[in-house]
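Re: that backbone. C-alpha cells:
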C-alpha cells in the first residue's frame, strides 16, 4: 500500500464479542420496524434532528471522497405546494400514460395514485441531489461513482431519520427536473429522491409486507 498523505491514526471503537452481538441484534430489531409512510401529521420537527440526520448521511463513503451529494431542506409552505403541484403533474402522466400495466399492478398493494397530499402536510421535505460533476473556480471537475456514493448516503439518511424516531418516504416522481427549477439548483445537480419527513399520522395504515428471509438474500462462500 502506498504511503498516505497527511495520515491520522484511526482507533475504532472496540467491544467485547457479546456486546457486539447485542448491539447488532438491537440495531436490526429496531431497523426492522422501519416502514415507508404516506400519511403524515403536521406536527413540527426539530431542525436539529434534520441537521443531525444529514450530518450522519454525510459520513457515507464516496468515490475519491468527493462527497457528490446535496440535500435541499424545504419547510416553506409555498415552495412545498409548488413541489406538490409539479410532482402531481408528472405522476398523473405516469399513472395515465407512462407506467406499464405490470408496474401499476405491482404498486396496487400500496394504494398509491397521483395525489400526493403528504408533500403539503409533512413539515419537512428533503430533496437528495446527486452532483454529477463539480464546478471549482469556474472549472468542471470529475466526481466518481456518483450513483453508488449517493445511494449509500441516502440509505444512511433513511436509517438516521428512523433512528431518531422520524418517518419518511422515498418518493421519485420521475422526471424530477422541476425540482432544479423550483429550488434553483445548478444543472450539475440531478434530483434523485424527494423525501417527506415527519411523524406518521395517528392511525396510519401501511401494507402488511413480509421481508425476504436471510436464506433467500445471502449465500456464504
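Recovered sequence:
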Amino acid at each position: 500500500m502506498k504511503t498516505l498523505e497527511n495520515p491520522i491514526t484511526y482507533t475504532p471503537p472496540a467491544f467485547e464479542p457479546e456486546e457486539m452481538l447485542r448491539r447488532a441484534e438491537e440495531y436490526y430489531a429496531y431497523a426492522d420496524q422501519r416502514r415507508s409512510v404516506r400519511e403524515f401529521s403536521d406536527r413540527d420537527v426539530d431542525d436539529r434532528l434534520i441537521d443531525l440526520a444529514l450530518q450522519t448521511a454525510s459520513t457515507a463513503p464516496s468515490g475519491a471522497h468527493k462527497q457528490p451529494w446535496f440535500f435541499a431542506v424545504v419547510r416553506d409552505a409555498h415552495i412545498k405546494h409548488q413541489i406538490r403541484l409539479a410532482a402531481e403533474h408528472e405522476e398523473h402522466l405516469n399513472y395515465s400514460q407512462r407506467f406499464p400495466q405490470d408496474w401499476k399492478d405491482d404498486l396496487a398493494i400500496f394504494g398509491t395514485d397521483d395525489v400526493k397530499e403528504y408533500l403539503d402536510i409533512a413539515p419537512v421535505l428533503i430533496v437528495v441531489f446527486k452532483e454529477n460533476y463539480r464546478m471549482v473556480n469556474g472549472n468542471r471537475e470529475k466526481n466518481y461513482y456518483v450513483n453508488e456514493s449517493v445511494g449509500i448516503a441516502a440509505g444512511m439518511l433513511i436509517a438516521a431519520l428512523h433512528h431518531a424516531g422520524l418517518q419518511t418516504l422515498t418518493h421519485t416522481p420521475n422526471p424530477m427536473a422541476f425540482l432544479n427549477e423550483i429550488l434553483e439548483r445548478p444543472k450539475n445537480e440531478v434530483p434523485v429522491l424527494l423525501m417527506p419527513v415527519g411523524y406518521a399520522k395517528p392511525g396510519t395504515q401501511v401494507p402488511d409486507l413480509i421481508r425476504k428471509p436471510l436464506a433467500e438474500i445471502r449465500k456464504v462462500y
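The domain at 36-200 is CATH 3.40.109.10 (NADH Oxidase). Residues 77-98 form the longest helix (22 residues).
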